[in-house]
Amino acid sequence: MSELRTLADAFDAALQEAKIQKYTYTVSTSEKQELNVETGSFKLMRTVFNNNGSVSVFLGAKNGAANGNDLSPEGIRKLVADAIAAAESAPEDPCHDFGPDQGQKVFRQGVTEPDLDRFLDRTKELLDLIARDYPKVRVMAAIAAFDRWNWISRNTNGTEFEGIGGQYSFSLEFSAMEGEQTTGIDFVGFSTGDLDTPFIEMSDVRKHLEDVQKSLNPESVSGKFEGTVIFTPGCGNQFLSMLLENYATSGVIIDGTSLWLNKVGEKVCSDSLTVKFDPFDARIVMGERATQDGYLTEPVTVIENGVLNCHMLNLYAANKTGRPLTKNTGWDLVVEPGTESFEELVSSVDKGLLVGGFSGGQPGTNGEFSGVAKNSFLIENGKVTKAVTETMINGNLGEAFAHIRGISKEQICDGGSVMPYIAVDGIVISGK
Amino acid sequence: MLQDLIGSKTSLFAEGMQTVLRGHENRTRRVVLLKGNVVQNSRSEERGVSARVNKNGTFGFASMADYSGAAAEKVLKAATENAVFLSGHSGIDLALPKSTCSGLIETNRGIEDAKQKQILEFCKTVDSYIESKYPDLSSRVVSYYEDSQDRIIYSSDACCGHLVTPRCYLYVVLNSETKDGVPVELFKAFGGYGCFGDQFAHPEELYSEIDALYKRLMDKKEGVYAEAGYKTVVLGGLMGGMLAHEAVGHTVEADLVRGGSVAGPSLGKRVASDLVSLVDFAHTYEGKPAPLPVYLDDEGTKAIDDVLIRDGILVGYMNDRESAEQFGMQPTGNARGWRFCDEPLIRMRNTCVLPGKNSLEELIASVEDGYYLIDSGNGQADLTGEFMFGVTCGYEIKNGKLGRALLDTTVTGVAFEMLKTVDMVSDTVQWSSSGFCGKKQPMAVGMGGPCMRCKIMIGGR
User: Fold this and answer.
1) How far is CA A204 from CA A240, A273, A419, A420, B405, in A?
2) What ipTM describes this predicted complex?
3) Which of A1, A38, B53, B445 is the most buried (most CB within 10 A)?
4) Distance from B33 to chain A by nearest Cα, in Å?
């Protein structure tokens, strides 16, 4: 019997000793090996061994939870006692619950025995390539991490899930410099289950490096105009996440502030937009297999050809509102490609921006956004012309995705999402 | 509170290397009421031990989720092996930073743990007040969040000590709709340094500020979009604090200076009008505890104030021991990690623009056509000093008087250009400490500032 299974049994024993009849818990162990690069040189090697236990206790219709990493017998008993204390103090609310018996399942994903020498070599290979081919690029930091974990989740309805997995992840933080001129920071990263591909070919690493070299001596857009914005895959991911957070997730449906509260089955975005959360897509490295509500994860198409198919509701929100549960937490974003190439999208724009990053206030429930276009370029007469600075974009999330000009047929996969370029009209662009 | 289980292991520190051994605990307490529903009710505790070893400028770090003497032995061995391994690949060969302090920093305070029932009852009382007094709200959130850090530090050649940093907040979010049915919201954070009992003895003490928040929300219901462009504004104290942290603070963190920040070539030069001075306070401001006091950092450096801008001239960076050596500055205690498994990074503590001589009323009266920007939801900046703050609460200024409220907007600028436009500074500092700063790891920080009149880019329809 594995050490983790013994720990899980200790949770059952402690909860039963406390005479708790309804509970769910998750216990996990994890290990991280991480290489940190600073200003181009290997600077720190970090090893982390961690544990975690989280327990949720139900006393009738009262629910409380506790979380901690002390998995000694005393630590487990304290976690159980803390969860009971939280439940005892809670008001009755029968909407707190977990899913019915899903049986016993084991999920094995990714790689559990890393090739750290090859990982180091791939990292060095990229750093050497950057130094040789991108002389203006300054690597401020790079993190090459291998994580592996084992977790077991059980509940009193009979479900037992076990996850065993591991993945490599790599992130790069960089800028370009020439004399005293410097660009803003750019980031790119990805996760992967193997090391077969040179890192320069992963995700859109090469495009980021090319673009940052072109970003020296940026200019502010002159005046204010309404134009088209092409979101890069990374920035499009950021905007779609804000859209769904403000319009379709549990909190805004429970409190009724969502502008899509009664829009299921209706057209809310342009026809060309189809948004899925598909953890079983082969391009997703470590897709979700089980939800925190104790259900087996299912793929979900939230928006299909512009029509809202469902909200993204957890079990509490579904019970609270009487609306359908979504057996998917919403981590594995896949947006269907369009029919035009990225170049064709650019050539269709008279005046607008190619936006690589957005630095703005978190939009409120009205969807209004306002922020600075980062890592961005001006588009004039169908061509990308110059890098911009101190340039703002303003609009409304719902209106933006209801006015999609086009979606690229190219998709970028970073291991956690699959995204095309998305061009939207009607964005207010302003400079000094 | 952590008991000292690791002090006896300092004899295992490797010769010829700099080692720090750290026992570390994080605790959180969280309750969230969404429209009266308890959607979160949880407690969390996490502790462990870590070691960081510096071998000629290359670092090894290791941690375990086990706070014990045996775990300390294991992480010391693993961190030393990591440093030795990486040193062979890094090509770095630096002299170890010199020692700048020694001795023991005594424990600064204790932690008093409130029962979950107390916290829930407090939240429910506040929620009931809002629900009964303001039934016209479309929604509301009352959320309690407490985190505390408790660390014991042993250093091979600096200070040792025990630092306890609890903080707790009650966040109130009020939602309404404009006449066109467009949702609007405002939030306010109450609380600060200390435990539940220090901050939240009586719920009725919050009611006047909740009433003021409601009034501003009603103003915002009738609000207008800002006119996009380059405008004269009065930044409120909370916005001044955001400016201190985001726009300037990050650019003068020495690791970002090494990465190419605009502060590199600006040292010793004018970066702001002579009305602007900026200090990262360690633990004391005007004779009282700073919002989140830091007495000792995670390298064992005794924390002292760090003057960054004096009368408009950039005079310093925030450093760890190694960067201080590199830049010829004094380490001031800025190296901190968030969890037991986090290596220390250069972080701000209590970063503040110093007050001036004008009153807020004088600032507002001096603006013919502009905006008074009161509160911010978030902010970001990058190496160039280009910053962005989300503005959640603000008003027009017309002919020296406040006008209509603003809907959410954003301001931006380049710090070292924008700060040169500051031509009036108010005499009172407003602090905040309820958020997190993100830089690989989260970190609790304080930020403060006076009101400032300046020119800035504002977004709008």
Assistant:
1) 19, 22, 11, 11, 42
2) 0.89
3) B53
4) 11
